[in-house]
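Could you join me in thinking about how sequence relates to backbone shape in a protein? To get us started, please write out a protein record for me. Would you write everything just below, so we can both look at the same thing?
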Amino acid sequence: MTSTDSIRVEWQDGLAILSLAQPARGNPFDGTFARDFLQVASDLLNAPQLRAVLLRAEGANFSFGGDLKVFYPARDRLAPLVREWTADLHMGLQRFWRMPVPVVTAVQGFAMGGGVALLAGCDVVMAGAQTRIGSAFAQLGFSCDSGSTVTLSSRMGVARARRFVLLAEVLAAEEAQRAGLVDLIVPDEQLQDEALKLARRLAAGPTIAFGETKRLFMKAGAAQLEAQLEDEALTLARVSATHDAQEGIAAMVEKRKPAFLGR
């Protein structure tokens, strides 16, 4: 397996270490990342030596989610772009979350938007003490995507997840842990070492039993996940064509308060 433009892949005795590798851009979700993520997830499923996955990110932040600098000049034609990008991203997410091995995620700095949906679907989320996890969809006039409605509800409960998204909350690490988004908190300087240690321990465990356990938990929500991913993609495409969504992007990039008109 080879690395891509946005994801670096390393192997250590059955442990696949995936690093989001665009730190200068905040490890964004865009068309390139969507294609790369689908390719990497597909390659992992075909790797007979796979026993665990560690998902991490290079740089100060895990991921800012969607890249507003890309959205801004294309904001009047976002609907077809959303449909194109989510076709790859959502298939990649389904394959990644259904990986028949444990997936550990190390989160530092800020994790926002689609980055939060991605980590929430993983098996064990370890965060640095100064981590901030947030949802900015509402601030942009967007509906949520990347499986947010499924993975956030699974971890936080429907009511708490809905409030998290509607109020565009940003949670400190301890708040995120209380809400169910984070499983373990460690000092920031120990995050990568501790996450690697845990991932190695799981890679040395009973792989088939882990995989079957994951399958059983996933089975109950499998139909819901597929339906929700498609509904999220088509809904976001419709919403992205509205005045408010385009105003939200412009306001964030232009560093001003958005003037939403409800249309």
In short: The first helix runs from residue 31 to 45.
